[in-house]
C-alpha cells in the first residue's frame, strides 16, 4: 500500500471516565475491504461513527483521499453507511429510498432515474422499486440499504454489522453477494462485525479490536495462523492453550516445560519466563508425525458434519482440542493417545500478556 | 372471515367509557341537536342565523382566532417537541414538567396574570417600544391579538405532546442515514423528520383548533363582550339572553365546525400514518 486512501491517526474517545477508543491508528488502501472485528464494547462502532462524522473524536485525525475530514459534518464527507437496522426511510418506497441521496445532492432527474434502476438491479431488487419498505423481508431491506448507500457513489462505505439480523443461510449468501457488489463498484469499505467467520470470509484485512485498541491488523490468514496476542488467538478461531516456563533458548528455538511435557517452540524468550503456548486444533494430529509430542486422554468426540472435534485432557488437567475430517477408527473416550504437531505450528506468548487480556 | 365477526370480549373494556360518555355527553348533545333542529323555529333558525351578517362576524371571529392560536402553537410547539424528543434523562423530565405544570394553574389565574403583561405599560409593550418596533406603548389587553397570545399560552402543551410522542418513536438513525447520504440539516428536517411527524402535527392541530374554537372563559376574561365567538355567543344566549333557540343553533354550528376539523385530521393522520 503506497499512499493510504483513509488514514486514521491517534483516534481517541472517552465517555465520562470510560475510554472507548484509545488512540487508534488505521490506514486503509483504495478499494480495500477491512473488517473491524471485536467483542461488543471494543470500540469498533465508535471508530466507525467517527469516520462517518456522526461522532467527534476527542483526539486524533481522519484523512480521507487527502482531505482532513475530522471536523467535517457527515453530509459533506462522501462516506456512506449501512446501519445495523438498515435505517430505511419508512415513508418512502424502495426506489425513493435509493434516490434520496441523489435528490439531496441535486442530481438531474434523468440521472437519478437511471442510477436508481442500475443500483436496484445490482442488488437484485429491480422488481421491488415501487414497494413499501414495510413490505420487504430483512434480507431485502438489507439489499436496499446497500443500494441506497452506494447510489451516491461514496468514497468510502461503512457497514455496521449489517448481517446480524439475518439467519445463517441468508447471511452467508449476502456476504458473498456484498463482496461481489463492492468489487464491481470498486468501493473502499470498512465492515464492523463481532462474527469472526464473517470477517475471515469477506475481508482483505482484519483489524482485531479489544478495549479500544487494535490488537492486530493483518490478512485473514495472518490473523488466523499468526495471532499476535492471546486475545487475537482466543477471539478468532479455536485453540488449545498450554501454560509453561521457558527452560532453555538457543538460536531462535526455545524449550518450554508444560504440564503435558517439554515442547519446542520457535522464538526468543529468556529462560525462566512464564509463557503460554497456543496450538490451532487442525494442526494437531493423533499420532507421532510432528516434532512436538504429548500424551493425552480422549474425553469426548463431537461430530460436526464436515469436521470432527476431539477433546483431550492432558495429564496436568489442561485441555487439548483436535480437529480432523474423520475420527481415527477404533478410538473411544477414555483412551490415552499420542498427539503431535509441528514445531513451527506452536504459538507462544508471554504469560503477562495473557493475564492482561483475560 | 367468520372469526372477525365473532364478539371479542376485550371490547367489554370499552364499556365504562361508552356508558359514561353516552350519559354525560351523548344524551345532552342529542337533546341539543333535537332542540336546534326540531324546536320552535326548526330549520328556519339556521336559515335565520346564516342570514344575519352578525352571525358571519361571529363565525369569522371564531375561525380566525382559532386558526391563529393553532398556528402560534404549531410554530412554538414543533421546535419544543423536537428538543424534547432529542433531550435525554433529566433534561427531558425537566422540560416535560415545565410544559405540563402550567396546566395546573387555572385559566382564571393566568388571565389575570396576562393583564400585567398585556396592558399599555406592560412587559410586552415596554419591550416592543424599547426595541423601537412600536412608536408608542400599546395596549394588547382587550384586543384579539391579546386573546390569541393568551390562548396559545394555554393550549401549547396540547400541540407539543402529540408531536413529541410521534417524534420520540422516529429512529434517530434515520437522520444519521440521511446525513451520510449527503442531506444538509435543513433538507433532513423537511424530508425526514417533518414527514414522519405529520401524524403528530395533525393530532396537535385537531386538539388545539377544537379547543381554541370552543374556548369560552379566555375570551370572556381577556376581551369581554365586544368580541363574540360561537362559544361566547352560545353562552350568552343561554345565560343572559335566555334565547335557547339561538344558543342551540350556535352550539350546533360550532360542533359541526370542530367535528369536521377533527374528522378531517383523523383521516389525514390515518392516511399519513399509513404511508409509513
What does this structure look like?
The complex is a heterodimer of chains A (358) and B (276). By secondary structure, chain A is an alpha+beta fold. Chain A contains nine helices and 20 strands. Chain A has two domains: 6-234, Rossmann fold (3-Layer(aba) Sandwich), CATH 3.40.50; 238-243 and 276-357, RNA polymerase II/Efflux pump adaptor protein, barrel-sandwich hybrid domain (OB fold (Dihydrolipoamide Acetyltransferase, E2P), Beta Barrel), CATH 2.40.50. Residues 354-358 of chain A have low confidence and may be disordered. Helices cover 77% and strands 0% of the residues of chain B. Chain B is built from 13 helices and no strands. The interface between A and B is medium-sized, with 29 and 21 residues.
Question: How many helical stretches of chain A?
Answer: 9
Terminal Cα span of chain A: 34 Å
Query: What share of the residues of chain B does DSSP label as strand, in percent?
Result: under 5%
Largest sheet of chain A: 6 strands, mixed
* CATH homology superfamily of the largest domain in chain A: P-loop containing nucleotide triphosphate hydrolases
Order of helices and strands of chain A: EEEHEEEHHHEHEHEEHHEEEEEEEEEEH
Amino acid at each position: 500500500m503506497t499512499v493510504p486512501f483513509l488514514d486514521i491517526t491517534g483516534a481517541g474517545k472517552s465517555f465520562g471516565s470510560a475510554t472507548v477508543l484509545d488512540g487508534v491508528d488505521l490506514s486503509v488502501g483504495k478499494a480495500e475491504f477491512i473488517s473491524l472485528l471485536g467483542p461488543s464494547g471494543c470500540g469498533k462502532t465508535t471508530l466507525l461513527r467517527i469516520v462517518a462524522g456522526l461522532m467527534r473524536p476527542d483526539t486524533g485525525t481522519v484523512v480521507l483521499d487527502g482531505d482532513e475530514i475530522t471536523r467535517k459534518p457527515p453530509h459533506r464527507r462522501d462516506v456512506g453507511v449501512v446501519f445495523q437496522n438498515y435505517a430505511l426511510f419508512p415513508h418512502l418506497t424502495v426506489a425513493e429510498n435509493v434516490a434520496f441521496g441523489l435528490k439531496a445532492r441535486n442530481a438531474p432527474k434523468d440521472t437519478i432515474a437511471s442510477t436508481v434502476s442500475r443500483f436496484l438491479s445490482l442488488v437484485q431488487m429491480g422488481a421491488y422499486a415501487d414497494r413499501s419498505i414495510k413490505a420487504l423481508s430483512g434480507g431485502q431491506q438489507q439489499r436496499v440499504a446497500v443500494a441506497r448507500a452506494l447510489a451516491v457513489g461514496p468514497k468510502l462505505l461503512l457497514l455496521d454489522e449489517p448481517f446480524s439480523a439475518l439467519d445463517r443461510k441468508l447471511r452467508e449468501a449476502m456476504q458473498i453477494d456484498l463482496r461481489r457488489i463492492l468489487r464491481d463498484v470498486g468501493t473502499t469499505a470498512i465492515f464492523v462485525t463481532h462474527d469472526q467467520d464473517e470477517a475471515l470470509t469477506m475481508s482483505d484485512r482484519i483489524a482485531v479490536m479489544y478495549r479500544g485498541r487494535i490488537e492486530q491488523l493483518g490478512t485473514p490468514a495472518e490473523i488466523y495462523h499468526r495471532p499476535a496476542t492471546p486475545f487475537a488467538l482466543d477471539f478468532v478461531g479455536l485453540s488449545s492453550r498450554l501454560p509453561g516456563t521457558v527452560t532453555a533458548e538457543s538460536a531462535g528455538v526455545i524449550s518450554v516445560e508444560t504440564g503435558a511435557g517439554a515442547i519446542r517452540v520457535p522464538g526468543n524468550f529468556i529462560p525462566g519466563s512464564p509463557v503460554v503456548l497456543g496450538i490451532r486444533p487442525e494442526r494437531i494430529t493423533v499420532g507421532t508425525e510432528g516434532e512436538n509430542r504429548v500424551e493425552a486422554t480422549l474425553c469426548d468426540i463431537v461430530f460436526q458434519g464436515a469436521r470432527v472435534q476431539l477433546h483431550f485432557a492432558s495429564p496436568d488437567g489442561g485441555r487439548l482440542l483436535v480437529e480432523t475430517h474423520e475420527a481415527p477408527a477404533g478410538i473411544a473416550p477414555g483412551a490415552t493417545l499420542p498427539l503431535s504437531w509441528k514445531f513451527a505450528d506452536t504459538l507462544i506468548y508471554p504469560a503477562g500478556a495473557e493475564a492482561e487480556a483475560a | 372471515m367468520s372469526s372477525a365477526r365473532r364478539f371479542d370480549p376485550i371490547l367489554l373494556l370499552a364499556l365504562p367509557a361508552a356508558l359514561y360518555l353516552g350519559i354525560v355527553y351523548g344524551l345532552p348533545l342529542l337533546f341539543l341537536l333535537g332542540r336546534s333542529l326540531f324546536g320552535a323555529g326548526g330549520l328556519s333558525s339556521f336559515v335565520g342565523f346564516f342570514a344575519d351578517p352578525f352571525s358571519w362576524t361571529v363565525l369569522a371571529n371564531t375561525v380566525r382566532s382559532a386558526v391563529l392560536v393553532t398556528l402560534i402553537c404549531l410554530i412554538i410547539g414543533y421546535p419544543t417537541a423536537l428538543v424534547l424528543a432529542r433531550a435525554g434523562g433529566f433534561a427531558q423530565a425537566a422540560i416535560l414538567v415545565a410544559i405540563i405544570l402550567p396546566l395546573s394553574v387555572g385559566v382564571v389565574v393566568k388571565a389575570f396574570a396576562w393583564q400585567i403583561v398585556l396592558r399599555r405599560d406592560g412587559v410586552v409593550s415596554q419591550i416592543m417600544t424599547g426595541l423601537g418596533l412600536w412608536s408608542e406603548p400599546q395596549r394588547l389587553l382587550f384586543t384579539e391579538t391579546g386573546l390569541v397570545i393568551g390562548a396559545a399560552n394555554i393550549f401549547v402543551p396540547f400541540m407539543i405532546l402529540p408531536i413529541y410522542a410521534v417524534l420520540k418513536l422516529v429512529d434517530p438513525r434515520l437522520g444519521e442515514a440521511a446525513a451520510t447520504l449527503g442531506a444538509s440539516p435543513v433538507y433532513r428536517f423537511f424530508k425526514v423528520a417533518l414527514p414522519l411527524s405529520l401524524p403528530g402535527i395533525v393530532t396537535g392541530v385537531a386538539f388545539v383548533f377544537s379547543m381554541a374554537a370552543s374556548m369560552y372563559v379566555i375570551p370572556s376574561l381577556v376581551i369581554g363582550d365586544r368580541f363574540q365567538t360561537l362559544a361566547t355567543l352560545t353562552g350568552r344566549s343561554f345565560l343572559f339572553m335566555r334565547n335557547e333557540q339561538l344558543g342551540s343553533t350556535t352550539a350546533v354550528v360550532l360542533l359541526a365546525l370542530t367535528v369536521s376539523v377533527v374528522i378531517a385530521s383523523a383521516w389525514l393522520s390515518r392516511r399519513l400514518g399509513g404511508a409509513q
